[in-house]
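Lab notebook, design round three. We kept the backbone fixed and only want residue identities now. Task for the bench partner: fill in a sequence for the structure below.
Input structure tokens:
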């Protein structure tokens, strides 16, 4: 479609070799559509896509302007750098690159605390000039948290939490034991990250008109209502999403509580409303009392101050 070679032997030889082998696999061959079918499908999407950004991206890929080529090449280089880094010799034990106010970092700290894994906390700069160790350890996103275990970096908070559960297998377990329950837990964790966090960010640090803020507050209320129902289903009448003990969804949602409460204070609204989401209100109180959580959760005032600082510097 574009006359540009993405899988170029000179640039990404490992990926080229892997792609050839992958496409030869019987299970893949049976299900993979032909290239022509993919081209046709892409053209159909392009023709019917009304959304500007998606159509724009596809259109650029099809005509393959030099900007897209550059982005693609850079992505590949960063990917290669990440692979190289992951293969590097192991040194040290557990280090966590983070910042105290990041809820994503809090997740990892709670998981490590629950498992009683000792670690060195390395505070890094994420705004402005990023710390060198962060750029080296997470060259793709350059974001915290990064868990460096025996010299190997693991990125993305939920992935790190899963890694911790799989690496340190002693109790308490974080993910449920049954594959179905694990799938449900991952579903809600993804929902929280996709929906709730975007809304909280909009309320906490983005300047918006009062009317659109009220709309966002309503959306948060809807999300929390769904999570109230999820709690009823997942907890089976027990104290946590994970049943008797704090589990995956508890950690993912619980790490957002500080920001939820900060937004309540800043916007003078009640998001965790006893009348609307009584189960979540009770759960939140219990969660914040847990020792592993308390130790690493900043005070509401700190969140409020931090949110004000971020939104001021964004203007
Ligand atoms: N999806 C990521 C999000 C991590 C994230 O957004 N981290 C923020 C700190 S709260 C960051 O590093 N921001 C720096 C940046 O966006 O450049 C995760 O779950 O770990």
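Proposed sequence:
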């Amino acid at each position: 479609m574009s006359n540009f070679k993405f899988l170029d032997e000179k640039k990404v030889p490992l990926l080229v070799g892997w792609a050839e082998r992958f496409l030869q696999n019987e299970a893949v061959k049976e299900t993979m559509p032909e290239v022509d079918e993919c081209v046709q499908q892409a053209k159909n999407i392009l023709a019917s896509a009304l959304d500007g950004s998606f159509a724009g991206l596809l259109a650029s890929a099809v005509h393959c302007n030099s900007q897209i080529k550059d982005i693609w090449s850079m992505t590949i280089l960063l990917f290669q750098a990440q692979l190289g880094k992951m293969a590097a010799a192991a040194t040290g034990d557990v280090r966590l690159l983070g910042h105290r106010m990041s809820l994503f970092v809090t997740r990892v700290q709670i998981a490590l605390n629950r498992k009683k894994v000792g670690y060195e906390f390395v505070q890094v700069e994420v705004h402005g000039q990023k710390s060198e160790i962060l750029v080296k350890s997470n060259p793709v996103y350059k974001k915290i948290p990064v868990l460096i275990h025996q010299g190997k970096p693991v990125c993305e908070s939920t992935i790190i939490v899963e890694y911790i559960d799989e690496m340190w297998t002693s109790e308490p377990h974080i993910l449920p034991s049954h594959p179905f329950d694990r799938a449900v837990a991952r579903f809600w964790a993804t929902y929280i990250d996709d929906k709730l966090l975007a809304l909280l960010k909009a309320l906490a640090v983005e300047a918006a008109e009062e009317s659109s803020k009220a709309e966002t507050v309503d959306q948060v209320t809807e999300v929390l209502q769904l999570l109230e129902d999820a709690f009823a289903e997942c907890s089976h009448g027990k104290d946590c999403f994970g049943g008797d003990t704090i589990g995956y969804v508890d950690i993912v949602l619980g790490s957002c509580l500080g920001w939820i409460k900060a937004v309540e204070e800043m916007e003078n609204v009640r998001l965790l409303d006893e009348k609307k989401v009584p189960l979540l209100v009770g759960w939140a109180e219990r969660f914040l009392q847990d020792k592993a959580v308390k130790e690493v959760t900043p005070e509401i005032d700190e969140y409020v101050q931090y949110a004000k600082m971020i939104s001021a510097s964004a203007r």
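Keep this in mind before ordering anything: The chain has three domains: 13-87, 94-167, 179-314.
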